[in-house]
Amino acid sequence: MIIELGHFAFIVALGSSLMQVVYPFLAGKDALASPATTSVLSKVADVTALAVGLSFISVMYGFWQADFSIRLVAGHGHSTLPLLYKLTAVWGNHEGSMLLWVLMLSLFNLFICRHKRSDETFSPLINRAAVTQASITCGFILFVLLTSNPFSRLFPVPIEGSELNPLLQDIALAAHPPLLYVGYVGFSAIFSYAVAALWYGTLDKKWAQLAKPATYVSWGALSAGITLGSAWAYYELGWGGFWFWDPVENASLIPWITATAFLHTLSVFEKKSTFPYWTLFLALSCFCFSMVGTFLVRSGVLISVHSFASDPHRGLFILALIATYSLAAFMLFALRLLQAPPAQPFHPLSRESAIMVNNLLTTTLATCIFLGTIYPLIIEALHAQTISVGPPFFNHIGGIIVLPMLIAMTVVPLLRWQKTDWHTLLPALTKNLVVLVLALAGMAWWHGYTLSLAVVVLALAATLLLITLVDYVTLLAQRTTLSASQHAMSLAHSAFAMMLIAAISASLGQEEKIQFQRLGESVPLREWQATLIDVRETTQQNYISQTAQLRFTTQEGAYAFTLFPEKRFYPASQTTTTEAAIHSTLRGDVYVAFDTPLQETEPLPSLSSSSLAQNDVWTTRLWFKPFVIWIWFSGALMVFAALILIIKRRPSRQSRIV
Amino acid sequence: MPPPLFYRLLPVYGILFLALVFAYAFTDEPTVPSPMATTHAPAPKWYLVRLDKPETLSPEVLHGRVSVVNFFASWCLPCVAEHPHITALAEHYPQVLRVGIAYKDSPQDAQRWLDTHSNPYTFVALDPVGRNALQWGVSGVPETFLIDTQGRIRYHLRAPIDPVTLTESLVPLLEGLLAEKP
Fold this sequence. Notes:
The complex is a heterodimer.
Chain A: H1 2-26, H2 35-64, H3 71-76, H4 83-88, H5 94-114, H6 123-147, H7 171-200, H8 205-236, H9 247-272, H10 276-299, H11 312-335, H12 351-381, H13 391-411, H14 422-446, H15 453-477, H16 484-508, E1 511-518, E2 522-525, E3 528-539, E4 544-554, E5 559-563, E6 566-570, E7 575-579, E8 581-585, E9 588-595, H17 609-613, E10 617-626, H18 628-647
Antiparallel strand pairs in A: 1-10, 2-3, 3-4, 4-5, 4-6, 6-7, 8-9, 9-10
Helix pairs in contact in A: 1-2, 1-6, 2-5, 2-6, 5-6, 5-7, 6-7, 6-11, 7-8, 7-9, 7-10, 8-9, 8-18, 9-10, 9-12, 10-11, 12-13, 13-15, 14-15, 15-16, 16-18
Chain B: H1 5-8, H2 10-27, H3 35-38, E1 48-50, E2 56-57, E3 67-72, H4 77-92, E4 97-103, H5 107-117, E5 123-127, H6 131-136, E6 143-147, E7 153-157, H7 163-179
Parallel strand pairs in B: 3-4, 4-5
Antiparallel strand pairs in B: 1-2, 1-5, 3-6, 6-7
């Protein structure tokens, strides 16, 4: 009964968002510009958000009650799941995650209708943005209702459900999709604002003020989501990697990079009215990339050539949806000429041009990653062979583009707005150059006197980190009043440099030991000896666990620490997962995973792995990975920088450094 | 001065191109040709454990007979959809050898799956980690190969068998191969 109410509420939401699209056109001649329309639209938006919220809760209730007469719950729920994962199972599948997507759309719709609505001068923009946002909401509600209905019943009712994928039964991954979706869908608000600006025909400081909060919220949420996802892959998959350039990962990275570029253009546009078209172009691209990302992930078109063969309608529907929205927006972009305030002219040697250069580089990076991700599809469509684009391509392209980007980021604080004199620039530039040479020497020495692309990127990142931090600490020590954006910039830039250093070092400097290990046998790893003490089997709420005990001692025999890697077997879905054990220090992680031995020649079916286990031989994989903890720390720092911008936004005229 | 309209429409061209590529990838999947089938390559050397008894299965079993090699798995949904068509093939062409290879599957699961859906295969072999599938150029399940009497691959279907492929490609090809006497 509850689920039918949810279904009904969802149809009501379709009606109310349709009403939000058509109301301004029916309400009279100047309705689009009037504040009265805004207040009506915000009431309609309340209804939509409430209705979608109710239908979301109804599905969540179904999972909580383990009501297997609901098809979705039967497919992804289980009665022995812990309560938390019963609830998060809602978005651990296609239908539920699309419902979450619609929920986010309706919440951002609410935000658009309410933000700055007390100021009448914003009404023309707000009304247009609200109409755009509601039309997006309509499309996705239709998609959910017609092709991925989470409310449908199942008959006959199964006795037990088939469980949430055990890999997803994890705190980080329970929080990952909602954060990612706040990011993705937050870009829809920016998209709507951009369409509103094109529709209205003007772009000025007011527009930047409207778009800023949504930008910061979605950028921060996406940063948090990507970091969590990467941390999850690191400790859950048991392969010791944190970034695989997997299409699913790229799908979230591409909008993030585009949004980073947009963030910078937006703040320059607000201050100097430069690059109006470029700002709008990026605003539209962010959401287009997040829609394509969702499409790639949800349709499974890149993951397996067979997975979507069973239901091509779903894929075609969402493809048509995305194509319609992005084509309409970019047609508008091409055809409308904006009335923008005159941009202040600037010299090639100025802060504007440095930011512009970095913007172009960032956009190029996003495009390259995008092309690398979809290249296999294009090649297949052109009837050539199936190919795959792997990490070497992305690492190389990334390195080459990040190189000039880091140089520009180091130089930007030295440049002035509009024009910088060579003479004032030279001393500071020399100081930077000295730091760079020292960093280069240091990094080359550290990596055994080699000079590769990775080492150069490391040195540049180290230079950026040093200079940014020294400048920031100096300013703080002088008790200079810094604006929120200056705090955020220093923190985010340091975080970016730190993340590059940590990620590259973790890949370059890792030590790996994979072997068969008997109980009591010791294996050396850097300064430690790892001894396999025992392997124990226990039964938990919904899985059977095998836990190994590995004791680490120093070479002299003194006790250092003990790690407990685990293997879990989930009987409901017949899956095994690896829970790696990690000993984290600031210097690096000791990462341990274990497995039953896999033999080169496959054993006969009768010879199961348990008989090998009786010989007490296990495959153990030990890694030492330098600086991994700093990757998560940098991610958190970026989110913190975004939080500063969201919570404490001072008018930019207070900024003291010009 | 904004650039001319032609240039301002650049993103639109890009989106149109991508939409076409994606739409094509959706609707035209099964026609991607396999390099193996077009060159009449000999079937890879394979030695696999049989499902029903602890015995290995080698290419010799195919010798001199037209055969269908079908990669399937108990965890694969499209395999259930194509199962009746393989059963139909087995009924109409009992003289054709049907080898089912359980891809990345446990022996228990594969056996249970065959028990529930009936076993249309002459032989069933196990490929637990998919190493053999790699040699055949299989990228997922289900995939189907037609082998001629000389042991060469003559047809490779990278999709589940559906009524259309069955009547329009599989059956005519099979008839042709059966007519080719060694």
